[in-house]
Amino acid sequence: MRDSPVKSSDFRLKVRGRNACFTRPEMKVERVSYDVMTPSAARGILEAILWKPAIRWKVIQIDVLNPIKWESVRRNEVGAVMSPRANGLFIEDQRQQRAGLFLRDVAYTIHAYFELTDKAGNEDTVVKFTEMFLRRADKGQCFHRPYFGCREFAAEFEVFTNGKPLPEPISETRDLGWMLYDMDFGGKETMPRFFRASLDNGRLKIDEREVRP
């Protein structure tokens, strides 16, 4: 039986970038972003810095640091996926021009913690992974470049430690409607899960108990 804690303390990571697109799943063709980063996108950034089978990240709050601004862009995308049996893909035949409504000049503070999973061994402890994450984040190390929804929208990151004061979020309060929480891979089919999102003085709080299929 494991006697050590199975849950870390909360981490706070500031992320920022030129553009972002946290795509609304109800938009079938055009890329239209949510107003604010989704919990799954925030988790993806944390996993880019540290992912191990022994831990699972939980995002509990996202602070919006910059005013919400938009940018409308038309860009070319490839409308097909190459088959493993194909010799290649002629891009010019599959090129499609699509409109996108992206966020511009974004910055957030991600509040999150991790839990140990059932894949954690006896040598896997909260202290071990806490030190590993803080060391990697402080040095700017990552398994792959974190991004804001689309790979071309790179995210820069900075971890807050030693009582360093957090930046103040924007003073905006409003309902954001139903937002994607994450994808559920536990059943026979992958299913999206949603929660009712709202900004409270720039803070988006996430309560997993309120998540719905």
Strand content: 35-45%
Number of domains: 1
User: What is CATH's topology name?
Assistant: Alpha-Beta Plaits
Rg from Cα: 19 Å
Protein model, in words:
The protein is mostly beta strands. It has a single domain (11-210), classed as Alpha-Beta Plaits. The protein is built from three helices and nine strands. The chain has helices at 39-49, 91-94, 126-139; strands spanning 11-20, 31-32, 55-64, 70-78, 95-116, 156-159, 174-184, 191-200, 203-205. Strands 1, 2, 3, 4, 5, 6, 7, 8 and 9 form a nine-stranded mixed sheet that branches. It starts with 10 loop residues before the first strand and ends in an 8-residue tail after the last strand.
List the topology elements.
Layout: E1 11-20, E2 31-32, H1 39-49, E3 55-64, E4 70-78, H2 91-94, E5 95-116, H3 126-139, E6 156-159, E7 174-184, E8 191-200, E9 203-205
Parallel strand pairs: 2-5
Antiparallel strand pairs: 1-5, 1-6, 3-5, 3-9, 4-5, 7-8, 8-9
List keywords for this structure.
213 residues; single chain; mainly beta; 3 helices; Alpha-Beta Plaits; 14% helix
